[in-house]
Amino acid sequence: MKTFKITGALIMVLMLTVTSCDDDFEEINQNPNSPEQVSADLLVPTVIRSSVNEVAGLAWGFGNVVMQYTAKIQFTNEDRYNWGPRGNPYNDFYNALRDVNNIIVISEESGQNNYVALAKIMKSWMFSFMTDTYGDVPYSEATSAGEGINYPVFDRQENIYQGILEDLEDANTLLGTSSETLEGDILFNGDIMKWKKFANSLRLRIHMRLSDRIDPSSAMQAILDNSTANPIIQSNDDNAALQYLSEVPNQHPLYTTRSGSFDEYRLSENMEGILKSLNDPRLYAYAQPTTDSDAGVLGDPDTYQGVPNGLADEEALQYSPSGDPSKGGSNFISRVGLMFSCSACTSLASPVAYQAMLISYAEVQFILAEARERGFITTGDAETYYLNGIRASFDYYESRLQAGNFGEIAAVIQPEADYFTQTDIAYTGTEEEKLEKIGRQKWLALFFNGMEAWFDWRRTGYPEITPGPAAFIPTVPVRFMYPTDVQALNAENYKAAINVQGPDQITTPVWWDVD
Q1: Quick one: which H or E segment has residue 296?
Q2: Which one of 57, 108, 241, 373 counts the least CB within 10 Å of its CB?
């Protein structure tokens, strides 16, 4: 009996031990260095950084070139519209959108409405960028692999924008209805009001984008009629702009690029011509004096020279602004401005002068100027909005040049008083002439603002953009082609999309582009 009792006791101990192990099984088998779920504040900075950096890269590689702010003197395919299928922003944005969806799910469960709103705003910004770039894209079934949807349908652009506008309005309402601080917010440092202004300013942009399809009057006026509930960007201090820092991971992408890659891009002859014709001192911010001029960081206008867009490689590399073949090549063509320069390019490069812009005060003012001129809104005065936009752009570049320790350039960046009285700038003329002036100044202010100038140009046609002599097609592209992996892996839905939208070509306009 004694032996039986000892054995029974041992069995009881073993049973309790096994039960205890079972209770802790899930905890023991979780890798603390690879959590299955993280809090929203840990996801937010990566979502912002990855998506904004993607747009900053596209501004450099495509946006500035197709809108003829810059031109390429080497490897000129982008400048000649030799565009094949483009993997990004499509792939990078959908990767980021999975984290956006996680932020929404996690935050809704915990009642953190501010995080839900932030995620919806970033989602809206990303989807508006993607649909303007490609046209119809997966939206309603996007990031639904967890629900068994591995081959999402492509939604029509008009439906995507309906969802975007609903999300932005919802986000504006949600912000401030819970008490949590937005930790991890590297865009606005947790400022709830600035997120509201960002959301409502995006709404204005989108309504203007769709204005040739849908009358935006009631929607835009409703935003302006209640500035307390629907605040918009009111100054450069409200700009939705990612401030880069001197250390990784928050360094801006161009600062760490190779000097050879940076030097492929130069001042466009079109940009040079417009700036000089207007005596516009932003020339000194957007470009550098030529190496041959030996002018240093700041020269007179003649020391800034551009190159035509759309030249073949050999012609571009040997181009001579003066027409003298002995004075051709890169030493005679202006680099992009110092505030955008890379650390390998010059010891003067600044890691903090350049900001990646999502939407600016200047842009919002130009949107309002156009809306007032076209009769979409009754609030304010079109000329006042227009002049505010111009001044905001000059003020912005003065402040960024100061931030980068380019004081010599900052000192000359503001225009003379007679700048505003020039025939091509003064707010006079017919409605069409005024709209052209708004469009030109908006284009000048949108330098390096992602692909926004391209999106807006497709709607307005301002300023005139003429394909270069070696262009592969005779017209400016109006969209990106879908990525090859999408064509292969989601073939059925891809084919259904192009059957409705039109051929998967860079000349096929998106839904809102009716001109």
Answers
A1: none
A2: 108
